[in-house]
Give the backbone structure.
Amino acid sequence: MLTDADRLLAGRDPDVPGLAVLLDPDALTAWLRSRWRGRPAPDAVTVRYLRYKPGTALVAAVELTWPGATRAGFVKAVAPSAAPKLAKLRGATVDDGRLLAFGAAADDRRLPGLARLGPGVRTLRYKPERRWVGVAGDRVVKVHRPPLPPSVVSDHQAVRAAGLPVPELLAARPRHGLVVYRWVDGEPLDRSRGGPDGATHRETGVLLRRLHDCAVVPARTRPPHRLELAGAVRAVAAVLPEAAAPAVATARAITGALAGADRPVVPVHGDFSADQVIAGPGGLAVIDLDRFCADDPAADLAGWAAAEIVAGRAAPDDRAAPILGELLDGYRPPPALLDRLDPLTAAALLRRAAEPFRTRQADWPRQVAAHVRRAHRLVAS
């Protein structure tokens, strides 16, 4: 059934009539089972990720479950103005009354590379119309919206050639948005039992410093903070209007705190967090360089701290440096970098503030509001 928060959201947006179905797990499963073409129909349909544009569309990555089997797909709920686009979805099940459509991941028109994959590929992560990641044997396959920027391949190869422990790139098909890497044995640090120990944190800091000090010149530069913060504010306002004004105030405070700062620009991971570092038999490795770019080195440290906050692994009142702990000891930052750490962590946290809604956390309104408040505290004192 719909939670109170989801019912309020659906009620605020009557232009997208399928919201109430897509946000209700029972209604979504019943809707899809009633229209399932083959047999047997799935036992359950679970939303794994959401992308929302008020008044226009809600797009969901879903996991369909049968006894002993799962399958990835997408569901779109759209406004009447976008109804003609539903008819163009390849292989999709379309409900013209509710303006809902379901398709298997392989039917994603924006990710045509998925249709080229053979059997035996298991989905790891899927953001409809944006990116898909899966595994086949000892291969990790990524499908992006084509054409794939040449820098995704060239930057990765340059980082590996510089001696950094990143996955081996085995194949790339830029025209189809396909990239294949060798699987890295080990466990992501966010899944280690009891959390990584101090030595592992220090080693992670040393590894990040090596990346920042490498001689690679990234092909891309990170967009200005004001653009990313504006997008973060829109995302918060879309799902929790009462948090919009605090989000705006926080974004302004961040912009003011970072204005005029003398910031070096180095190669950065761009999405550095505990799930991007693998502890394996040969030591640590860094994965997923899709956002590799030129930026302030403090941005990677701030991104790690923000991810720890969102994951619930940080003490309630900790600032960025205590959250980073021994990772910061291994990194050995210059004093000027520490001055930028809290404002940049606030920026990274505000960008992640809507994640509890996107990932369908049960108490997402409380979490979204809490992230906005904490981001403001980080930059306001």
Notes: The mean pLDDT is 95. The chain has three domains: 4-107, 127-182, 187-379. DSSP finds 14 helices and 15 strands in the chain. The two ends are 42 Å apart (CA to CA).
